[in-house]
Amino acid sequence: MTIVKIALEVIVVIASILLTLLILMHRGKGGGLSDMFGGGISSNAGTSGVAEKNLNRLTIIVALIWVAIIIALSLMAKYHIG
Q: Which residues cross the membrane (predicted)?
């Protein structure tokens, strides 16, 4: 079972990095840090509606995978599996 645990830990690291990048790719809605880094200057130059929807879906899918793996790892630790 240690191979499964190591594989899940590697996947959660990859998912964490991917989730961070996906969140940073989202267009700012105004205010906050996105305007500080120039997000307010080119607000119309962002992605189209379809691309934004696909980015939202991909972000949600990666987030759900991340949460599921975190829960699985915590259950493995609780019941001393692996």
A: 6-24, 58-77
